[in-house]
Amino acid sequence: MEGVSSTYFTGFLTKSLSFTALSPSSVMSLHQKSVSSRNLVIRASSCSSSVVTLLDYGAGNVQSVRNAIRYLGFEIEDVRNPKDILNADRLIFPGVGAFASAMDVVIKTGMAEALCTYIKNDRPFLGICLGLQLLFESSEENGPVDGLGLIPGVVGRFNSSNGFRVPHTGWNALQVKKDSKILDDIGDQHVYFVHSYRAMPVCSSLSIS
Fold first, then answer.
1. What is the mean pLDDT of residues 163-187?
2. Range 89-121 burial, b when 16+ CB lie within 10 A, else e
3. 138, 144, 178, 180: least CB-packed within 10 angstroms?
4. Dist CA 162 CA 86 (whole Å)
């Protein structure tokens, strides 16, 4: 998981289970109110269910997410088919690995269409790392490679020509652009990053850090 330290991950998840849209630099979930206008909004979740649906597409270790969900007292429902996504009260999609491989999996399993329908219907959703990046229009990783196209923008590689080390690994402070409850417990603390690519929305106002 990139961009979130283990110390604060449970705190992030606590708030994400209460709010349907969160957007720090590497943990962002957005909801598309209108397909034609691509108007992305943030709203609070009123869902009273104690179940969290987890989309584990088989790449990367999501055990830390499972542990945090259970620690917070929620039950976990694993996605086994596209219908499970459509029936979810709240959905978390963590992901690790290559963009193209992940897209190939969600397309071949029918998860891509279900994900798009779920998010376009303004349902509670949290994308973590690759689970966020797939929502964008495309990625530069071994590409360009088409994404789900739900968020206008691309996933781009960091520019190393100016001496910036890629992959970007280490503790860094967040540059907070606007107030958000998901960052209340972070303040000026540092978080740990391990990534070579970052999500770049067309509209910069979609990011809170």
1. 78
2. ebbbbbbbeebbebbebbeebebbebbbebbee
3. 178
4. 45
